[in-house]
Every structure is written in structure tokens, then in C-alpha cells.
Write a structure and sequence with these properties.
By secondary structure, the protein is an alpha/beta fold. Helices cover about 40% and strands about 15% of the residues. It contains eleven helices and eleven strands. The protein has helices spanning about 30-35, 65-75, 80-85, 95-110, 125-140, 165-175, 225-245, 250-255, 265-280, 285-295, 310-325; strands at about 20-25, 40-45, 60, 90-95, 145-150, 155, 160-165, 180-185, 200, 210, 220. The strands form two sheets. Strands 1, 2, 3, 4, 5, 8, 9, 10 and 11 form a nine-stranded mixed beta sheet that branches. A two-stranded antiparallel sheet has the order 6-7. Strand 6 (about 155) and strand 7 form a beta hairpin.
Length: about 325
């Protein structure tokens, strides 16, 4: 990924559902979980016990936030994410509100508090809770899976329907969702057989829904995993046709978004080498100023630790600018 504004990356659109983030919400018994398990190669994270009538799905029973952290680490860590992605394309996160309760309890236990509000001597543990939830969700949605979040629905004071859950938990999910699907029941037919729910992909005065894809079908008469995938594929094909773009694979898109790997040892050596060169050119005070500006007054290169990697990037950039100014 280029961070040079004079040689920028160009944004691209990826084909299909791979790497997409989807939120599906609605009332009970609308087929949210059943259809989610029909996406490709699913792995079900069961905060809510939603597989009681669905057989053959690979799953993890999540009963605590610690359970989720353990599974999420296996799915997203650098040493295991490739293996996980060979096994699974879709991760199903069922359900948002329950997961938030588990995270809240985890934070309360960690800080020996009865509630989030009463913790921290009455000032609350809201920031700790929000950070803990965000960090785990961010890992999951950044790992390259199609992630399907499932939520119940709630109605606000004005009568509008929204996904249900604590706002601190919903924010990183809804804000990062490529599609938010609102489901509505169609009742039963003349034989008292349940008619598949309908899906809405655009907001109205009655409910919240949305899609990042301008050309997507905003209403699916019968909601199925296959129908949603087809709608996404057609939307991207239309975008190619109308806007003249060329959609790429998810792997190609990911390359444009990938940050440079920040390696402590490599950065440390480059900083030392740049510092030595500048010292040899009577620029020792400049080096000291850059190090102290990045790490703190009185600090030296030897004070850098592996927790300072991002700071070291800034220090190296400044040192490199000084080296360039010497004509080296």
C-alpha cells in the first residue's frame, strides 16, 4: 500500500461476497440464522443458541467473551489465519446483543465492578468496554472472511426499526457493514406454510437498512443466501457496465489496502544506521531532537521497545528526510 499522496493507490471493487461484511437483522423466526448458514463454507459463532433445528454446520458454542477471544485469535492471528481461511469463507456471528452482554461481563469481572456504569469509582468503564469490543470485532472483519452479523430488532421512540444492541457494540459492526439487511415476515400461505421473509437493503422512514453498492436490488421478495449473493454480483456487474470499472478479485483488492509490515528489528537497524550517518555529518543534535520528539524528552534509541513500532516509523521517516537533505 502506498502512503505517498504523489503516487496514490487507486480504489477498486472486489467481485462476489468474499471479504464483505453483512449485517442481517429482524424479529424472530425469519430465517436469519438458517440463511446465514447457507453462505459458502460457514463457521458459526453461537453466542445465541440458534442451531437447534439446523444440522451439519461447523460451529463454536460461545458462552463467554473469553470463549470468543480464544476462537477469534485462532481465526485471525498471523500464524493461523491462512489455515482458517482455507477451511472457512464465511464467519457467522450470532448474535450481537448477547455478545455485547458477554463483553460487558468480561470488563466488569476484570475491574471487579458490579456494572459498567458503577466501575471506575462511579465514573464508568464505558471506554474500556467499547475498546475491548471494538478490538475483537476489528480483528474479525479485517481477516478476509465474509462476516455475517446477526441481530434482533428494536423500535425507537419515533417508531422506526433498527438493529438491536448497545450502541458501542453496534457501531463497529454497522459502520463497517457493506450491507445491512432488514428482514420482514410474509406470514403463511393458504396451507399454513411459512412464506420466506423479504429482505430490504435500503433505508425507509420505517426501518434502517443500507448497501454500499449503488446498483444493488434494494428489495428481495424472498430472502435467501443465494438471492443476496446474486444481488451483490449483479450490482458489481452493473457498476462495471455503467461506470466502466473493472472489478478485481478480493485478493487483489486486499493488496491495495494492506499496510506495510512493521518489523521492530528492521526498523531499529534502519534508525541506528540513519542516526550514525547523520552523526557523522555533525547532525547529532538533529538526531536527538527527532528521537525525543518521537519517544519523549531524554529518551534514546536504546529506549525503543516492540511496543513503540508505530512511533519508530515516524522517527525513521524524519531521519530519512534529513538523510535525503544531505544528498545521500
Amino acid at each position: 500500500m502506498s502512503l505517498d499522496p504523489f503516487a496514490p493507490e487507486i480504489s477498486v471493487v472486489a467481485k462476489g461476497l468474499e471479504g464483505k461484511i453483512i449485517t442481517i437483522y429482524g424479529s424472530n423466526n425469519l430465517g436469519k440464522t438458517k440463511q446465514a448458514t447457507r453462505f459458502k463454507n460457514p463457521y458459526y459463532l453461537g453466542f445465541e443458541k440458534g442451531l437447534g433445528a439446523i444440522a451439519g454446520v461447523k460451529f463454536a458454542a460461545i458462552n463467554t467473551w473469553a470463549d470468543f477471544k480464544k476462537v477469534n485469535k485462532a481465526l485471525t492471528s498471523k500464524t493461523t489465519v491462512a489455515k482458517a481461511r482455507e477451511l472457512y469463507q464465511t464467519i457467522i456471528f450470532d448474535e450481537v446483543e448477547v455478545s455485547a452482554r458477554y463483553c460487558s461481563k468480561f470488563i466488569c469481572d476484570k475491574y471487579d465492578a458490579d456494572t459498567i456504569a458503577s466501575g471506575n469509582d462511579g465514573f464508568g468503564l464505558w471506554k474500556e468496554y467499547e475498546t475491548a469490543y471494538f478490538e475483537e470485532i476489528d480483528k474479525l472483519i479485517s481477516a478476509g472472511f465474509t462476516v455475517v452479523f446477526i441481530a434482533h430488532q428494536t423500535t425507537d421512540k419515533a417508531g422506526k426499526v433498527w438493529a438491536k444492541g448497545d450502541k458501542r457494540a453496534l457501531a463497529p459492526i454497522i459502520d463497517n457493514s457493506d450491507i445491512v439487511v432488514h428482514l420482514r415476515s410474509n406470514g403463511t400461505n393458504e396451507k399454513n406454510e411459512v412464506i420466506k421473509s423479504s429482505a430490504y437493503l435500503a433505508e425507509t422512514s420505517e426501518f434502517f437498512a443500507r448497501s454500499r453498492f449503488d446498483y444493488i436490488q434494494t428489495y428481495l421478495p424472498e430472502f435467501t443466501a443465494e438471492a443476496l449473493e446474486e444481488a451483490v454480483i449483479k450490482a458489481i456487474e452493473l457498476q462495471e457496465e455503467i461506470e466502466g470499472i473493472t472489478a478485481v478479485t478480493y485478493s487483489e483488492q486486499k493488496e491495495t489496502l494492506k499496510s506495510e509490515e512493521l518489523d521492530f528489528e528492521t526498523l531499529y537497524k534502519k534508525i541506528v544506521d540513519a542516526g550514525k550517518l547523520l552523526h557523522s555529518k555533525d547532525k547529532g543534535e538533529v538526531v536527538t531532537g527527532i528521537i525525543e520528539n518521537g519517544l519523549g524528552k531524554g529518551k534514546k534509541v536504546t529506549d525503543f521497545t516492540k511496543n513503540h513500532v508505530e512511533m519508530m516509523v515516524g522517527v525513521l521517516d524524519d531521519l530519512s528526510d534529513e538523510v535525503k537533505a544531505l544528498g545521500n
